[in-house]
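Structure in, sequence out. Go:
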């Protein structure tokens, strides 16, 4: 029969372990062991304070409890709104507890009959809103199903807000990929759905070159302007 050696902790070692446990308990019960602030980033339309409430964190929760609930907290935030595509909750040395949100901002309002539905960058729509009370957004007018046009939505999402919010309406042709834009300065812009929003990044510079002339800005092949009372088109500088 083999003998087993059993090591019995010495009293000094037990005292050290007991002391550490006491100190750890004191830390958790102190203000230093409680979570007091959470940094939120990545939001556009959503309110950061509301998102923190949706995390369903009890006041005075300990650092350890919060760490153990990271995944459930992320699930709570993702379920709080269709605009939350993903949530990442973690602790970083420089920032502390940090909630990073991938929010699908509202890009436009789709005019569907008498209803106006907010459109997100992933093609999802929210409940109908009153266009008079909604934020300033382009109105999408189309007889076709636009959901599959991911390139159009992605480029619209990447377009600078200063340009996008100056688009009054976007009309998609029924039998082609042509898109017609009406701007807040009454300028009409015509292009194709896959590239028009990419080229619209240079709209401020192109409009400055056009000045007060009335006519149509074409962005299908290159960029050129046709004045209302002229037959010829004039190239317009653009970098895309």
């Amino acid at each position: 029969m083999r003998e087993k050696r059993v090591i019995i902790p010495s009293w000094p070692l037990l005292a050290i372990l007991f002391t550490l446990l006491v100190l750890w308990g004191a830390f958790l019960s102190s203000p230093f062991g409680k979570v007091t602030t959470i940094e939120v980033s990545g939001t556009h339309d959503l309110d950061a304070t509301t998102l923190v409430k949706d995390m369903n964190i009890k006041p005075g929760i300990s650092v350890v409890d919060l760490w153990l609930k990271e995944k459930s907290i992320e699930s709570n935030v993702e379920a709080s709104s269709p605009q939350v595509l993903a949530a990442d909750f973690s602790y970083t040395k420089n920032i502390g507890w940090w909630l990073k949100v991938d929010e699908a901002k509202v890009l436009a309002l789709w005019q569907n009959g008498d209803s106006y539905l907010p459109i997100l960058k992933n093609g999802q729509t929210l409940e109908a809103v009153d266009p008079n009370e909604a934020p300033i957004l382009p109105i999408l007018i189309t007889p076709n199903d636009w959901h599959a046009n991911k390139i159009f939505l992605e480029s619209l999402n990447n377009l600078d807000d200063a340009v996008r919010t100056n688009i009054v309406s976007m009309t998609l042709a029924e039998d082609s990929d042509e898109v017609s834009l009406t701007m807040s300065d009454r300028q009409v812009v015509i292009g194709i759905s896959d590239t028009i929003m990419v080229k619209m990044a240079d709209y401020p510079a192109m409009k400055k070159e056009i000045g007060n002339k009335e006519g149509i800005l074409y962005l299908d092949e290159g960029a050129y302007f046709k004045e209302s009372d002229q037959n010829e088109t004039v190239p317009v500088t653009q970098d895309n």
